[in-house]
Amino acid sequence: MASRRRAAKVVYRERARRGDRRALRKLVEEIDVFSTEERKVALELLEERLTRGRASGYEFHFAELGGELVGYCTWGNVPLTRSSYDLYWVAVAPKCQGVGIGRRLLREAEAGVARRGGGQLYIETSSRAVYGPTRRFYRGAGYRQIARFVNFYAPDDHKIVFCKTIAPKRRLRRPRRAAETHR
Asked: In terms of Cα–Cα distance, which of 165, 167, 164, 124 is closest to 144?
């Protein structure tokens, strides 16, 4: 990342906006490991969120630097579960990788799960060598590998599943006033 970019402040937000369509398309096209099909799915999830709002089941967090989308993540509740969540995407522009944006986005998703009462956050990825840095990223963030589905995506391309337990966010109880304790 260029030194002038380091000086700029990364802005994080949750709300998806119409302009994110073009920005997200540009971002996922910059990331070489994503296939055409994967890029299409990333855009479909955003479109679903823009169309249906919270009813879509997809939550987003965006990272912008100088008004440019440089990272995002998408997560949501696993259907038919009470406290299981999937992290569908976490992606950072190649020029901005390695400076903590991905970690911050992942922490934002984890905080969202915690606000909903906590549970398990699952992440799946490919076993291909090109995804090695991705797997190291998840392990470094405290996720542990819990499954490997052999030849899942293609011959010799296994699905690797990671998981982390997210504690619920505790609400601080406000102290009772004297008048409240003597009813």
From this structure: 164
